[in-house]
């Protein structure tokens, strides 16, 4: 459930890309209606349109990317991973934003499945493709936390907040505090938490 919420929380920003400039992205009727339905919080209608889009245009990697989110929301991780693989094969190589999001999405799912090495490869690549996206660092910080790499997790937490002072990292901070291996580490996590407090006070 946590992963589904993480991925769906990114939909608003990503859906906006369909109307952005270069590189050119799909504008077919079923695709646009499917994206609009996702923006409106209606995954059932979105599924209908995106399924029709994939049937008519199976090479639309963007539609596969959105379909992966719907599959994951419905609890079908296997289909979600298959759809993300298709999206990575079909999205144009020059569209780093969407490729980064597809890598991020798969990295988050693989983290939940405890496939640590593959998850880190995807999240590393998501960061390489889109180094200014705070969500990528937040996802990798969670992966590092779950694999006992607490210093690396704290480093990515700090980077997340550097990029977005209002990023929702409260759970991550509390989890790091719970496993703090030393007083010094706890102090550094607390300092990061204070960054959140200052951002919320503005």
UniProtKB/TrEMBL annotation:
The keyword Repeat applies. Residues 1-20 form the signal peptide. PANTHER family: TETRATRICOPEPTIDE REPEAT PROTEIN 6, UDP-N-ACETYLGLUCOSAMINE--PEPTIDE N-ACETYLGLUCOSAMINYLTRANSFERASE SPINDLY-RELATED. InterPro entries: TPR-like_helical_dom_sf (IPR011990), TPR_rpt (IPR019734), Ycf3 (IPR050498). It holds the Pfam family TPR_8. TPR repeats lie at residues 100-133, 134-167. The lineage of its organism: Bacteria, Pseudomonadati, Bacteroidota, Bacteroidia, Bacteroidales. The keyword DNA-binding does not apply. This is Tetratricopeptide repeat protein. It comes from Bacteroides gallinaceum. Keywords: Repeat, Signal, TPR repeat.
